[in-house]
Amino acid sequence: MTNVTIDAVESRNPATGEVVFTAPATAPDDVGATVGRAHAAREAWARRPILDRQTVLRRFADLVERDAPRLADLIVTEMGKLRRDAVAEVSWTVKSARWYADHPPPVERRGAAVVRRRPLGVVAAITPWNVPLLTPAWKWLPALLAGNTVVWKPSELSSGTAVAAHELLREAGLPPGAMELVLGGPDPARVLCADPRVASVHFTGSTAAGRAISESLAGRFIPCALEMGGLNPALVFPDADLEHAADCIIAAGTAINGQKCTATRRVLVHEAVAETLMDALATRVHGLTAGDPARPDVDLGPLVHPAAAAHAEQAVAAAVSRGARVVARSSAPSGAAVAPEAFFSATLLTDLPPEEPLRRHELFAPVLSVETFPSAVAAWPMADATPFGLSASVHTADPATAAEAAEVLRTGVVAVNRRGDDVDLEAPFVGTKDSGNGHPEGGEYIYSSLTALQAHYQDVPVPSR
Ligand code: NAD
After folding, report:
1. Is 227 a catalytic residue?
2. Is 307 part of any domain?
3. I need a surface site. Which of 36, 74, 298, 355 has the fewest CB within 10 A?
4. Do 203 and 165 fall within a single domain?
5. Which residue among the candidates 193, 224, 248, 261 is catalytic per the annotation?
6. Domain tally for the chain?
7. Residues spanned by the domain of 290
8. Cα 437 to averaged position of ligand 1 atoms, centre (Å)
9. Is pTM, for the whole model, over 0.70?
């Protein structure tokens, strides 16, 4: 991503190169005024009855449902997601808004106290382009419901989806100032994080950007929730259903065209079944159809940008020059309306040398590498041998191996005999090591970084909310 101030945000359909959205960027000098509007609105929003805030979320859900086809088209054309995945993202946003409307921050009695969760004030949400509606919604739906106001800085590559979502929130009855948008690249985001009126920062994106945000907040005692990158293993044991394992691995490795934080990147397979699994994976890679992501028969769309595809090609070529071997690549995109520059073939590699950067650095593209292990004892440390700890999948018929996986793997998600990239709205979503700093998203868990706990002792009756 760019490191220089930009005057305008511009989204191009990566499948065709066409410009699909432009808007002026927020000048860094204007970020303060934007935060000021959210700051001024916070008392009134926090004091609105919880029922009002729930009603806004429910109306928002209805409006997203009404506009689902338009929103899905926007997501497809802005960042190249398959249309069926964009439809699912929109539908999950509707479900999430309704779920949060039913699950405000809990009020509990503990000992002699009533434990309340009070809003913090202005929450900064800084988000990526790969899940441009649902990932931000998982931050601002609970933030708003809890009585915070929000300043949202979406990715410069998916600003059109952000503007559309913001308009629907306003149509749903969200008052002016309760949610403000900052458009642009990292520069206005940095200014946003530095604003002393910001009471909590919620970031999803690369580990490098998350680290920069964390460093910039050093010495300020505000919650900072960082959801970052992953280099996620799939472990395949000899007793596994290998066909099912291969289905899960390829689906999770190519989801969002390989641009998903929880995508499977590393396949660790017991040497007794390595050849069989490799053949099953190769067959599936060769069977992938690349092309216009709006087409229902397409499995693999473009990467978000031609530069991302060029970067992935270079990384694979460099790995091969260092000794890695290409086992399979999917075919080039088909179809007349497609500009090939942003397309990158799904790639299955093996024989990565020990110092290969792909073992340690996240490549945001559909590249999977295969390694073998001789025993479970050897497999667990291999799975852990990256700087990341987001998600892992394990394929086995043995309940003891499944239980051991949960015990020893240091990832926020452990998925047994299922895709490693699927997460549930109600469960905590939180990475370890360079994948996250321990502040979860998901369900009610996110309230820990969106609210301040207050133990309320009093000798007269307390209202329940
Ligand atoms: P990115 O880090 O480049 O950008 C994410 C957001 O941060 C954007 O809005 C960007 O403008 C802003 N930003 C960038 N540098 C910044 C800085 N120094 N200070 C403040 N803001 C800054 O990431 P991306 O390319 O948009 O998204 C891909 C990355 O996101 C991958 O690493 C992926 O693994 C990660 N991701 C993680 C999760 C998760 O939940 N763990 C989910 C989706 C994506």
Report:
1. yes
2. yes
3. 355
4. yes
5. 261
6. 2
7. 232-416
8. 14
9. yes
